[in-house]
């Protein structure tokens, strides 16, 4: 397998994981949103929450299904394009992935049917329990996946066997809770909530631009803007903590993110923008703030920071990719904070439901959560290069011995199939979101109180009918 085949294999994995990651990032937040909606519905009996639950349940079901289907491809690639990695890291990565299946996937699969189809067949407490279990399952799934990836980023608790395999050196706890895991799982979960809240705010803003009296649109928009106001600043703080952890354990990644080709013994500048020049090992046309990077990363403007000039060339990641994707992620993060502040001002002025420019901005910002998630994922994964297991197993040593033509053919097939299948799925999601929620408050919902298999009271059917 030559360099071309390796590049194509990496491109294929990047393409498929990017497609996959946007769906869990949305379904994690949507499942928790549904849990909150049903809790409010059961507590207040207000039909608006019932209608919104029905509205977003359909959207969640489609996104969840696409996430499961796209996730199956990842295991396929581990066995085809990356069989050497699977062989060497399998004794650690394999059990972690299996724990995700045995806990999160089984939990979701066990209760998803009740959540989707049992709303008129089971009692309210059981149905709410099913919703809670699905939401919990999505969080557990994210936890195990991030744990696996975090070990690859900051590997600890292992030994190398006589067969060259990574094996546990004793307890599994250091492996599961690797040094970067707490920071990364918080960052990922907040990103999922922020992504979902931006989508919900965008959908609510879209419908409020057409009918500002639509009660369902008003309620979803208000709830989403509250979540953006909480999650956006929380994500900035979580990202700062994550950056400090990365500086400790993966300093080369930070150098690439910051664009520091040179070491700065007396305080490093914060490069806001520029054009990385790998050949000359500098940032061209740099716009920078003196010593600000040292202040952010070391809390001391005069603290020294190392540069890529102190790193062997064969351990430097692709700087332009990491440099730009990091700035896309951070820039969008501050744009989200701006949206949150705009929403708070409108709420304080009692103009939240009379703010067309806020609605337009929310619609514009709706997809940005997905862009920021992908940019962040590319930053952390490309910044880890040239390693799959950081510092121990290189990417060039992890691939399968395949011909370039075989990898190219599979990549082309994935691109075609993905754009057809997931393009159709995304189009259907947008169609669902384009339909307005129920415009009026309904009578308090008659929550079914009977056992499974018994048709509930007609009043509940009336509320469900208003939700479509």
TrEMBL record:
<dbReference type="GO" id="GO:0019646">
    <property type="term" value="P:aerobic electron transport chain"/>
</dbReference>
<protein>
    <submittedName>
        <fullName>Cytochrome ubiquinol oxidase subunit I</fullName>
    </submittedName>
</protein>
<keyword id="KW-1133">Transmembrane helix</keyword>
<dbReference type="InterPro" id="IPR002585">
    <property type="entry name" value="Cyt-d_ubiquinol_oxidase_su_1"/>
</dbReference>
<feature type="transmembrane region" description="Helical">
    <location>
        <begin position="357"/>
        <end position="378"/>
    </location>
</feature>
<keyword id="KW-1003">Cell membrane</keyword>
<feature type="transmembrane region" description="Helical">
    <location>
        <begin position="407"/>
        <end position="430"/>
    </location>
</feature>
<feature type="transmembrane region" description="Helical">
    <location>
        <begin position="185"/>
        <end position="209"/>
    </location>
</feature>
<dbReference type="GO" id="GO:0005886">
    <property type="term" value="C:plasma membrane"/>
</dbReference>
<keyword id="KW-0349">Heme</keyword>
<dbReference type="GO" id="GO:0020037">
    <property type="term" value="F:heme binding"/>
</dbReference>
<dbReference type="GO" id="GO:0046872">
    <property type="term" value="F:metal ion binding"/>
</dbReference>
<feature type="transmembrane region" description="Helical">
    <location>
        <begin position="96"/>
        <end position="119"/>
    </location>
</feature>
<dbReference type="GO" id="GO:0016682">
    <property type="term" value="F:oxidoreductase activity, acting on diphenols and related substances as donors, oxygen as acceptor"/>
</dbReference>
<feature type="transmembrane region" description="Helical">
    <location>
        <begin position="126"/>
        <end position="146"/>
    </location>
</feature>
<dbReference type="GO" id="GO:0009055">
    <property type="term" value="F:electron transfer activity"/>
</dbReference>
<keyword id="KW-0813">Transport</keyword>
<feature type="transmembrane region" description="Helical">
    <location>
        <begin position="55"/>
        <end position="76"/>
    </location>
</feature>
<dbReference type="GO" id="GO:0070069">
    <property type="term" value="C:cytochrome complex"/>
</dbReference>
<keyword id="KW-0479">Metal-binding</keyword>
<feature type="transmembrane region" description="Helical">
    <location>
        <begin position="20"/>
        <end position="43"/>
    </location>
</feature>
<feature type="transmembrane region" description="Helical">
    <location>
        <begin position="221"/>
        <end position="238"/>
    </location>
</feature>
<keyword id="KW-0472">Membrane</keyword>
<keyword id="KW-0812">Transmembrane</keyword>
<keyword id="KW-0249">Electron transport</keyword>
<keyword id="KW-0408">Iron</keyword>
<comment type="similarity">
    <text>Belongs to the cytochrome ubiquinol oxidase subunit 1 family.</text>
</comment>
<dbReference type="Pfam" id="PF01654">
    <property type="entry name" value="Cyt_bd_oxida_I"/>
</dbReference>
<feature type="transmembrane region" description="Helical">
    <location>
        <begin position="321"/>
        <end position="345"/>
    </location>
</feature>
């Amino acid at each position: 397998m030559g360099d071309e085949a390796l590049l194509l294999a990496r491109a294929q994995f990047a393409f498929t994981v990017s497609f996959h990651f946007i769906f869990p990032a949305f379904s994690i937040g949507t499942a928790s949103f549904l849990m909150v909606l049903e809790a409010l519905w059961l507590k207040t009996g207000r039909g608006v929450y019932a209608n919104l639950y029905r509205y977003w349940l359909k959207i969640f079901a489609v996104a969840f299904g696409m996430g499961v289907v796209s996730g199956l491809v990842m295991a396929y690639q581990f066995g085809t394009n990356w069989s050497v990695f699977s062989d060497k890291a399998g004794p650690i990565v394999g059990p972690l992935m299996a724990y995700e299946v045995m806990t999160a996937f089984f939990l979701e699969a066990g209760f998803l049917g009740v959540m989707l189809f049992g709303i008129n067949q089971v009692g309210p407490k059981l149905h709410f329990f099913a919703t809670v279990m699905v939401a919990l399952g999505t969080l557990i799934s994210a936890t195990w996946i991030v744990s696996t990836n975090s070990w690859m980023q900051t590997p600890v608790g292992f030994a190398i066997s006589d067969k060259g395999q990574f094996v546990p050196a004793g307890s599994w706890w250091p492996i599961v809770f690797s040094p970067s895991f707490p920071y990364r799982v918080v960052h990922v979960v907040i990103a999922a909530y922020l992504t979902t809240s931006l989508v919900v705010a965008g959908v609510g803003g879209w419908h409020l631009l057409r009918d500002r009296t639509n009660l369902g649109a008003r309620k979803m928009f208000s709830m989403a803007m509250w979540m953006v106001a909480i999650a956006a600043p929380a994500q900035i703080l979580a990202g700062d903590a994550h950056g400090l952890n990365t500086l400790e354990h993966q300093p080369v990644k930070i150098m690439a993110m910051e664009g520091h080709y040179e070491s700065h013994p007396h305080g490093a500048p914060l490069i806001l923008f520029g054009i990385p020049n790998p050949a000359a090992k500098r940032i061209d046309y740099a716009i920078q703030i003196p010593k600000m990077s040292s202040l952010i990363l070391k809390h001391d403007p005069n603290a020294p920071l190392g540069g890529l000039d102190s790193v062997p060339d064969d351990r430097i990641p692709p700087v332009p990719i990491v440099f730009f994707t990091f700035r896309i992620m951070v820039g969008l993060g501050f744009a989200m904070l701006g949206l949150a502040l705009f929403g708070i001002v409108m709420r304080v002025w009692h103009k939240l439901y009379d703010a067309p420019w806020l609605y337009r901005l929310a619609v514009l910002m709706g997809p940005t959560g997905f862009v920021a998630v992908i940019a962040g994922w590319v930053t952390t994964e490309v910044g880890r290069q040239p390693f799959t297991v950081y510092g121990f197993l290189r990417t060039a040593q992890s691939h399968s011995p395949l011909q370039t033509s075989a990898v190219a053919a599979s990549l082309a097939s994935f691109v075609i199939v993905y754009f057809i299948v997931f393009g159709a799925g995304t189009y259907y999601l947008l169609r669902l979101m384009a339909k307005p929620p129920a415009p009026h408050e309904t009578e308090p919902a008659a929550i079914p109180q009977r056992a499974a298999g018994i048709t509930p009271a007609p009043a509940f059917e009336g509320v469900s009918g208003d939700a479509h």
